[in-house]
């Protein structure tokens, strides 16, 4: 099972866990990416996420399908938030489950790394004295 969502509303870990719930899976790994309050010693006021949603969903689906094939995991949930986020807000939730812990940890890391590299979601950091677009892997 694969569940993908891009939303301008707050993300909910409990609903992601419920979506992925599978009585045949004993291992569940999650990744939660939240907004930090500083970058390189500068205070972050907010982040602004933008995306091209049709392409983003398409790329997220490719990543999830690849994770299922590569790591033989059963379920993948990827929810990403767009719009204006403040320090402490959750920007991304990934849930992976399967029968074994090693596969879910590996798949979760693969998904977040791939998402940052290929999905057209752009992040702009806003500081007290300006703003800058952030590359996924500077």
TrEMBL record:
Asked whether the UniProt record includes Oxidoreductase among its keywords, one would answer no
* UniProt family annotation: Belongs to the MoaE family.
Enzyme Commission (EC) number:
2.8.1.12
UniProt keyword Metal-binding, yes or no: no
Task: State the organism of origin.
Answer: Sphingobacterium cellulitidis
The alphabetized UniProt keywords are:
Molybdenum cofactor biosynthesis
Q: Which domain of life is it from?
A: Bacteria
Q: In which pathway does it act?
A: Cofactor biosynthesis; molybdopterin biosynthesis
What does the record give under GO molecular function?
Answer: molybdopterin synthase activity
Protein name listed in UniProt = Molybdopterin synthase catalytic subunit
Reactions performed catalytically: 2 [molybdopterin-synthase sulfur-carrier protein]-C-terminal-Gly-aminoethanethioate + cyclic pyranopterin phosphate + H2O = molybdopterin + 2 [molybdopterin-synthase sulfur-carrier protein]-C-terminal Gly-Gly + 2 H(+)
Q: One GO BP annotation here?
A: Mo-molybdopterin cofactor biosynthetic process
**Per its UniProt record, what InterPro entries does this chain match?**
MoaE_sf, Mopterin_biosynth_MoaE
Pfam families xrefs: MoaE (PF02391)
Q: Which SUPFAM superfamilies match?
A: Molybdopterin synthase subunit MoaE (SSF54690)
Q: Which gene encodes it?
A: moaE
Which range is the signal sequence, renumbered to this chain?
none
- Source taxonomy lineage? Bacteria, Pseudomonadati, Bacteroidota, Sphingobacteriia, Sphingobacteriales
Subunit organization: Heterotetramer of 2 MoaD subunits and 2 MoaE subunits. Also stable as homodimer. The enzyme changes between these two forms during catalysis.
């Amino acid at each position: 099972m694969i569940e993908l969502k891009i939303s301008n509303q707050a993300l909910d870990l409990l609903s992601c866990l419920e979506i992925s719930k599978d009585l045949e899976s004993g291992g569940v790994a999650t990744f939660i990416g939240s907004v930090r309050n500083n970058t390189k010693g500068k205070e972050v006021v907010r982040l602004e996420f933008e995306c091209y949603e049709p392409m983003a969903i398409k790329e997220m689906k490719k990543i999830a399908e690849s994770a299922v094939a590569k790591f033989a995991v059963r379920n993948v949930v990827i929810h990403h938030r767009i719009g204006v986020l403040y320090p402490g807000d959750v920007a991304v939730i990934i849930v992976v489950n399967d029968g074994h812990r090693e596969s879910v940890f590996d798949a979760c890391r693969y998904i977040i790394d791939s998402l940052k590299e290929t999905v057209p979601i752009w992040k702009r950091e806003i500081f007290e004295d300006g703003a800058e677009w952030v590359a996924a892997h500077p």
